[in-house]
Amino acid sequence: MIKNRLLPAVVLCLLLAMSPPAPPKEIPLWPKGAPGSEGKTAPEKIVTLPNGEHTVSSVNNPSITPYIPAADKATGAAIIVAPGGGHKLMSIDHEGYSVGQWLQEHGIAAFVLKYRLAQEEGSTYTVDGNAVPDMQRAIRLVRSRAKEWGIDTAKIGAMGFSAGGELAGLAAMRADNGLPNAADAVDKQSSKVNFQVLIYPGNSKRFEVTKNSPPVFIVCGNNDRPDISEGMPQLYLKYKALNIPAELHILAATGHGFGLRASSKGSMSLWPQELYQWMLGTKIIKAK
What sign does the dihedral 163-168-173-178 (CA atoms) show? Predict the structure, then answer.
């Protein structure tokens, strides 16, 4: 009889152990509301696509979703991940959460950024005035909580896909040492990144490479539009000319928007491992 009474409890424990962990909780970049979003109360719009993936739009309260690795796996590195979507929406799964999970599993803290969208219908936001500041604020926020999350402040990077790649590249260009007179303690933190990961970034003609630009890892598809498939080799050469560590991968028979999916095959599925090896080679991380 005792065994029979214990059986349901044992089964429940097994089911709980098999259940997937709860998704990470989003952290607002500005807990009291983002500057420039005052009075905007429309909720986020989440759309489920036919393939089961999701897009997000109508972002008025930008945030980061943290993926923190276990202490025994942590490398001390962190990456803010900005999904793409033409500044009209964000492809939040294969260019966001899937990437965050992969990085977490490999000891790299990841923070998936939801930023304000400049090209969404009816938007009052701009890339330079709102979306780039969202990326900069995310960098500052991660740096301000680095000790809590086990992050080395000399190993913080920005990653972006397509439109998100534009944000990552522009944020790296426009970094500062912090705003010393800011009332908000987070804004006093530096917005500098120590490396960039540009995955088929948009509007790369806006990127300016200087001797102070951080190292860069670049990936694009050979069949992408010319400003990317031809623009990325040109961008790489600018880094090479200034002797800044740079690595370029052009994937054959590949177009735009491949991101990271469980269904990906061939070179489309391998770029995260190549990134990891680049981070080892540039000594951003050490092998665990």
Answer: positive
